[in-house]
Design brief:
5-stranded antiparallel beta sheet, 5 strands, alpha+beta, globular
Length: 118
């Protein structure tokens, strides 16, 4: 039985998202957010979304999170995801690079850590 493999995972206070690659090279996310306060003020929301490939997922991830994606904590990055993430980091303008230097270092460390195991 073929199982989906973890491809990318990010977290933040009160939530996170995991992206899995299916044996047929399609992808799906599983995520949740909320619950930091009481259920009325901060309801728990969970989701699952299918994607044909990592590029489509990444485009949606950037669109949904805007510049805030840098402040999410990368928990796992598959080596095959590194070039697209590196391109996104490289394309930041100088002001964003300066303002987000600690977050950029965190993303680079996560990519280096996972690249060594490839």
């Amino acid at each position: 039985m073929n199982k989906a493999e973890l491809f990318f995972k990010v977290g933040a206070d009160g939530g996170g998202e995991s992206l899995y690659r299916n044996p047929d090279d399609t992808f799906f996310t599983s995520g949740s957010s909320g619950g930091m306060l009481d259920e009325e003020e901060d309801p728990i929301i969970s989701w699952q979304v299918d994607y044909p490939d990592f590029q489509n997922y990444w485009d949606d991830f950037i669109r949904k999170n805007g510049d805030f994606w840098l402040f999410l904590f990368p928990l796992y990055i598959h080596p095959e995801a590194i070039p697209l993430i590196q391109k996104a980091l490289d394309s930041l303008d100088d002001e964003k690079k300066e303002m987000s230097s600690d977050q950029i270092k965190t993303w680079r460390r996560a990519m280096e850590k996972n690249h060594k195991s490839f």
